[in-house]
């Protein structure tokens, strides 16, 4: 009957220069520890401080609106840094805000006019700053009006249904005692349609806001006999009652210097368009967007001074911490001197220096333990082979099997002769050699028939 032989553990492979084994022990140890550190750092990077996204989505405004034009300017600027900005057309600020508040829409940021967030929970949103004025300009038939309350009982164009202009108009009129359902007729039209109705006498006043109050349209209306623009003498009161409003002036001649239009300073009230984002917007993307806003809106204009926008003044939304940091200190040194993608990696690496240091100290202590384990595991593999040979020697074995066991012992001794062992483990090495001799003696005794 054939006796089942236990499996022999494979002896260490020592091909070539025996010094390679020691070199390999050190190399494998350091590589294993380095790989562990890199893996842990990578997990921290991606889980705690992920890389900025390559693509973000922005809800803008209607076709040919200033909101859409602005968003497309942002898109071109962000493309310089390898970031793709997907621009979505919308009906305006109201739809933009709803898209931001709906996670299923996957919209990252939007331009939102002040005054459209009443009754909505906007705690999940943050502002990167105000970027331009969206003035309220009231044209009316006649002269001498300076208060919205004087329009009671008249026909007023207040903006189309669902628009930010309509929402803001209703709030301003309500503050002056004019509400839907009364004697005042509120007409759902804005822009050129409202201006045409005003000139034709179909409405008595038109509240224009933002894109409706263009320079060209205001000039055309002011040249029409019998059409005047309302001077908000109570502008300061409006800014107190509605914190999202600012007081701005149209100086004499700002629309047409040659004809000095307007002839006198006109006081206006205006919300601002804010760059609003979801609270999980990546800080690096936030910096790029504010930088783009500075490039687009930093120049002087009809209603603003140079450098007035973007502005970190909070209105309806909390200014993000990243935006506050950017407005105070600007771009970091890395982002000023390196390409965006490289600066992003460097910035995240600096943030992780402390966690890396915490990981390195245990890793340095792990290296000696791992090295000891590799050396001892090599010795234990020899012992595994010796135990198997000894068991075979004690069993009833044939002459041929005993010869094979001697050959295996010779292989072990030859392997040990080539093995280069660190001095710290010399005692274990020589004990192993003694045990090889002990097993050989047991095998010789079995061959001679001695117990």
From TrEMBL:
SUPFAM superfamilies for the chain: Periplasmic binding protein-like II
Pfam families for the chain: NMT1_3
UniProt signal peptide: none
Keyword entries, A-Z: Membrane, Transmembrane, Transmembrane helix
Segments traversing the membrane: 28-48, 350-371
Superkingdom of the organism of origin: Bacteria
Entry protein name: C4-dicarboxylate ABC transporter substrate-binding protein
């Amino acid at each position: 009957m054939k006796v089942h032989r236990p499996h022999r553990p494979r002896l260490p492979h020592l091909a070539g220069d025996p010094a390679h084994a020691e070199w390999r022990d050190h190399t494998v140890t350091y590589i294993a520890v380095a790989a562990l550190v890199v893996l842990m750092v990578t997990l921290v990077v991606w889980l705690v401080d992920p890389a900025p996204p390559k693509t973000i989505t922005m809800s803008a405004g209607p076709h040919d609106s200033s909101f859409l034009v602005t968003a497309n300017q942002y898109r071109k600027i962000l493309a310089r840094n390898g970031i793709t900005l997907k621009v979505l057309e919308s009906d305006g600020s109201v739809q933009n805000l709803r898209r931001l508040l709906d996670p299923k829409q996957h919209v990252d940021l939007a331009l939102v006019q002040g005054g459209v967030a009443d009754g909505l929970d906007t705690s999940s949103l943050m502002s990167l700053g105000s970027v331009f004025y969206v003035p309220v300009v009231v044209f009316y038939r006649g002269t001498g009006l300076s208060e919205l309350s004087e329009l009671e009982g008249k026909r007023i164009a207040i903006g189309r249904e669902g628009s930010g202009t309509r929402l803001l108009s209703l709030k301003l009129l309500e503050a002056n005692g004019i509400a839907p359902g009364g004697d005042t007729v509120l007409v759902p039209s804005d822009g050129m349609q409202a201006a045409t109705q005003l000139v034709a006498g179909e409405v008595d006043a038109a509240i224009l806001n933002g894109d409706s109050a263009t320079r060209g349209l205001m000039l055309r209306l002011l040249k029409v006999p019998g059409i005047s623009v309302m001077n908000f003498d109570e502008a300061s009161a409006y800014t107190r009652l509605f914190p999202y409003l600012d007081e701005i002036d149209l100086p004499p001649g700002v629309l047409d210097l040659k004809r000095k239009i307007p002839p006198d300073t006109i006081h206006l009230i205006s919300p601002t368009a804010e760059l609003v984002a979801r609270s999980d917007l990546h800080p690096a993307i936030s910096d790029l967007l504010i930088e783009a806003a500075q490039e687009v809106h930093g120049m002087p204009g009809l209603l603003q001074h140079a450098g007035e926008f973007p502005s970190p003044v909070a209105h309806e939304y909390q200014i993000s911490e990243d935006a506050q940091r950017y407005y105070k200190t600007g771009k970091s040194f890395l982002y000023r001197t390196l390409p965006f993608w490289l600066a992003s990696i460097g910035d995240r690496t600096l943030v992780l220096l402390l966690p890396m240091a915490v990981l390195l100290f245990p890793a340095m202590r792990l290296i000696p333990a791992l090295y000891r384990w590799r050396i001892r595991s090599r010795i234990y593999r020899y012992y595994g082979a010796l135990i198997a040979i000894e068991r075979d020697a004690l069993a009833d074995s044939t002459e041929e099997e005993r010869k094979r066991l001697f050959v295996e012992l010779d292989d072990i001794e030859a392997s040990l002769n080539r093995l280069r062992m660190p001095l710290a483990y010399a005692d274990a090495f020589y004990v192993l050699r003694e045990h090889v001799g002990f097993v050989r003696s047991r095998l010789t005794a079995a061959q001679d028939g001695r117990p």
